[in-house]
Amino acid sequence: MKRILKELFGTALLVLIACGIASTSNIILATSVTLPGAFSLLTIAIAGGLSYYVTSYIFNTDKERNAFNPILTVTDILNHRVTLATGIKIILSQLAGGILGTEILGIILGGKYGAMGANGYGELSIIGSSVFQAFAIEFITSLILCLVYQKIDKLNNQFIIPLTITVIYLMAIPYTNGGANPAKSFGTSIMMGTAYIKQLWLFVIAPICGAIISYFLAKLLQKK
Q1: How many CB atoms lie within 10 A of CB 89?
Q2: What does the pLDDT average to over 193-201?
Q3: Domain span holding position 188
Q4: Full-prediction pTM beyond 0.85?
Q5: Of 47, 49, 105, 201, which residue is 20 to 30 A from 25 by alpha carbon distance?
Q6: CATH code assigned at 108
Q7: Of 106, 61, 103, 70, which is closest to residue 89 (Cα–Cα)?
Q8: Residue 89 main-chain phi, psi, to 5 deg
């Protein structure tokens, strides 16, 4: 139960920070004629990485590593770090955390939160990406994140995951607004409504596919 609560509140905090910064940076950009669009891209990418670092620092211990992301929990299940039953409970708590984080943010910002960093393609993305482009980006970025996550035990580097998130967000934001976390996608889609909910399937299926393939690829890379 303790871990479930950590995953719930940790995911809520991660989403609150990352989406909060995304919302405010876009508001600043919209009200300024001097700031380039790259300001928002870089700010949101860095926020995604730092929000994970802050959350991990608060909730993780030397003996327990929480994921705060369903696709990372999928790799934990595949690597037998958690049982299937426990993994499902963790994923459900992460999804609930995603909703909690966005609801809190919505209250704080009083409804003035723009797109809140919600994930989408077509008209809901910055460059109007196609379904194929969005799926490919979400798959690749999730694959990279999960590959790195599975090596953390050996690298023992707390900065590598936040750095990885920043890098993949720099790649993904123009196409999908930066996903690779179904809990974040779930919470923001629920908040933003029908148009985003209709596209939510992609931001669940593509990252999970990336996570599963990363497990087999990690095993292949570990072979001598």
Answers
A1: 17
A2: 95
A3: 2-222
A4: yes
A5: 201
A6: 1.20.1080.10
A7: 70
A8: -60, -40
Q: Which of 17-21, 42-46, 147-151, 194-198 has the lowest mean pLDDT?
A: 42-46
Specify the long-range contacts of residues 212-218, CB closer than 8 Å, at least 24 apart: 212/74, 212/78, 213/139, 213/143, 214/75, 214/142, 214/143, 214/146, 214/147, 214/150, 215/75, 215/78, 215/79, 215/146, 215/150, 217/143, 217/147, 218/146, 218/147, 218/150, 218/151
Give mean pLDDT, residues 79-86: 95
Q: Which two tokens stand for residue 122?
A: 């077509």
Measured CA to CA, the distance from residue 146 to residue 121 in angstroms comes to 22
Condensed to tens digits (0 to 9), the pLDDT of residues 177-190 reads 999 999 999 999 99
* Other Cβ atoms closer than 10 A to 212: 17
Number of domains the chain is built from? 1
CA dist., res. 9 & res. 132, Å (int): 33
Give the helix/strand (H/E) hosting 13.
Answer: helix 2-30
Residue 172 confidence (pLDDT) = 95
